[in-house]
Design brief:
heterodimer; A: 305 residues; mainly alpha; MetI-like fold; 2 domains; globular; B: 310 residues
Chain lengths: 305, 310
């Protein structure tokens, strides 16, 4: 087992190097000179050139790439052009907020998704099944930024049950987490249903029923447990969905997280900060997928081979 | 069925043989395509999806005929007017007719999604064919690059691309297309891997069919079904992605009527005029739902074993 984890961790290194390279390549395409932008219109050309040299922007892409990697390994993501603070400090301030939002949404997605999927699978073709399936499809067809606005209107402006935005208590967290989790609830629900339906007709399920176990214990202990692996895969993939979704949800709810910082960095053309944000997002996503892979190995020993 | 009037007694007498000949007829004409059509049309949800997709397409094609007003004309006296008989879905903050803007917005949504999926399909299928068929180091390199692109959380790669390329409808389309490409590479490659060692391919190769022809005529047609399913489901994703980018102000720019942009416009007036943000969002949801339903139906009709995997 430790060897399996170590191998998987080593396999992450080329992916992370690739992510940094793609990000730098994309940033290089940004039209206009970020340095000229930083110094304003009245900057003299020699000032611009001096700052470019100071930031290391006068070197070719591959040289900058190598330097950036050396810095990243030492935990240095550069300084934000906008605030002149270290990017690690900027991200460190907001990352816990995004983590809290994503985890809350994940809990909602897992609990509501699996529960509705089980309800759906118990009587396939029934009206509960039809209702759950339609709702899950609507959930994953809704733009989450729009759902966020609808929730704000109904629960904050109209019913005055929750605050419009900001952070602090669980009441601040409720609406953004619900908006962020909607597509994932739908996807987890659909996966739970189809995965359970596959197992439902296995011989051992029939045996369990035949020996007189009541149906809820058959469903939960025999069917759901075996169908967990594909469900866990989908849940892991949903983290990626949610980190992207956080950009939208945080914008709608004025949630001071990494997503909003990313949008801020784009509009300010702060490419150092943007690069750091993208890197942190992608790294967390890759690490979560690794955690999912490792959890398979615990659940299903065949994976370890 | 015969269109000529037939005596009822005679029909009853020849009933059995008639139904048998009908059976033989269906058997004779039964083609895989007809099977798919039959499977698809039995699925009520799938047909509902097809109807929505056709309606949205017609709306986009006939926008000038359907729209009650010019989507760009501003009637500042009527700004933020709630829905009434003049403005069926109300007016926005510049007094423009929201219904007309939604109707014209379907053109933007469909254009971006169609072209983006076409780009992703063209690139993804050709790269996937090369990777899957040749294998070896080229396959490894291609798949590592695809892995890196898929390691970006949903939306982030597209956001970074639009930030780099600049906003606007063309760049948004390109960004959405590039974002979807690695998924098409993956699905094509995995199909090719399953097909290339089948007997008919080996047989064709043994008879001296040149490689390019072998890939295009023997391998590709058998890899198509899941790609079609993928393309339909990615139409839904592409519409959502364009709306999201435009909502953030990074995608389609005003005054073009993009649904995502319209929701963003309504955000500032949510308390006083909630209709401005609500209706464009419903339009997005309906269009996306249509493609999702249709994609699900196609998947079940074309290849039920894909259920749960796509």
């Amino acid at each position: 087992m430790p060897r399996f984890v170590a191998n998987r961790l080593l396999a992450l290194i080329p992916v992370l190097l690739g992510i940094i390279f793609v990000t730098m390549l994309v940033m290089d395409l940004i039209p206009g000179d970020p340095v000229a932008l930083m110094l304003g219109e009245n900057a003299r050309p020699e000032e611009v050139a001096a700052l470019r040299a100071k930031l290391g922007l006068d070197s070719p892409l591959l040289v900058r790439y190598a330097r950036y990697i050396v810095d990243v390994v030492q935990g240095d993501l550069g300084r934000s052009i906008l605030s002149n603070r270290p990017v690690t400090a900027e991200i460190g301030d907001v990352f816990p907020h995004t983590l809290r939002l994503t985890l809350a949404a994940m809990v909602l997605a897992v609990v509501l998704g699996i529960a509705s999927g089980v309800i759906s699978a118990i009587r396939p073709g029934g009206w509960m099944d039809a209702g759950v399936r339609l709702l899950s499809l609507i959930g994953l067809s809704m733009p989450i930024f729009w759902l966020g606005l609808v929730l704000i209107y109904v629960f904050a402006y109209y019913l005055r049950l929750f605050p419009v935005g900001g952070t602090g208590t669980w009441r601040h967290l409720a609406l953004p987490a619900l908006a962020l989790s909607a597509p994932s609830i739908g996807i987890v629900s659909r996966m739970t249903r189809s995965s359970m339906m596959e197992v439902m007709h296995e011989d051992y399920v029939r045996t369990a029923r035949a020996k007189g176990l009541n149906s809820s214990s058959v469903i939960l202990r025999h069917v759901l447990r075996t169908s967990l692996i594909p469900i866990i895969t989908v849940v892991g993939l949903q983290f990626g969905q949610m980190m992207g979704g956080a950009v939208l949800t945080e914008t709608v709810f004025a949630w001071p997280g990494l997503g909003r910082l990313t949008v801020l960095a784009i509009f300010a053309r702060d490419y150092v900060l943007l690069q750091g944000c993208v890197l942190v997002f992608a790294t967390s996503y890759v690490l979560i997928n690794l955690a999912v892979d490792i959890s398979y190995a615990y659940i299903d020993p065949r994976v370890r081979v | 069925m015969s269109s000529q009037p037939v005596d009822t007694a005679q029909t009853a007498a020849s009933g059995i043989s008639a139904s048998r000949s009908a059976l033989e007829e269906t058997r004779r004409f039964r083609s895989p395509l007809m099977d798919v059509v039959r499977q698809f049309s039995r699925n009520r949800m799938a047909v509902a999806g097809l109807v929505i997709v056709v309606l949205v397409t017609f709306t986009a094609a006939l926008a000038p005929l359907l729209a009650p007003a010019d989507p760009a004309v501003q009637q500042l006296d009527d700004k933020r007017m709630p829905p009434n008989s003049d403005y069926l879905l109300g007016a926005d903050e510049f007094g423009r007719d929201i219904l007309s803007r939604i109707i014209y917005g379907s053109r933007v949504a469909l254009f971006v999604a169609l072209v983006a999926v076409a780009i992703a399909m063209a690139l993804g299928v050709s790269i996937g064919l090369v990777a899957g068929y040749t294998g070896g180091w080229l396959d490894s390199v291609i798949m590592r690059v695809a892995d890196v692109m898929l390691a970006f959380p949903y939306l982030l790669l597209a956001i970074a691309l639009v930030a780099a390329l600049g906003a606007g409808i063309e760049n948004t389309t390109l960004a959405v297309g590039i974002w979807a490409t690695p998924s098409f590479v993956r699905v094509t490659r995995s199909q090719v891997l399953g097909i290339k060692h089948r007997e008919f391919v080996t047989a064709a190769r043994a008879t001296g069919v040149p490689t390019l022809r072998l890939v295009l005529r023997y391998v590709l047609p058998n890899a198509i079904p899941p790609i079609i399913v993928f393309a339909t489901l990615y139409m839904a994703n592409a519409i959502l992605l364009e709306a999201a980018l435009s909502f953030l102000g990074l995608g389609v720019q005003p005054p073009q009527p993009s649904w995502g942009l319209m929701v963003a416009d309504g955000r500032d007036y949510l308390r006083v005029a909630p209709h401005i943000a609500t209706f464009p969002g419903i339009a997005i949801m309906i269009a996306v739902l249509g493609f999702n339903l249709m994609g699900d139906g196609l998947r079940d009709a074309l290849d039920p074993t894909l259920r749960g995997r796509i």
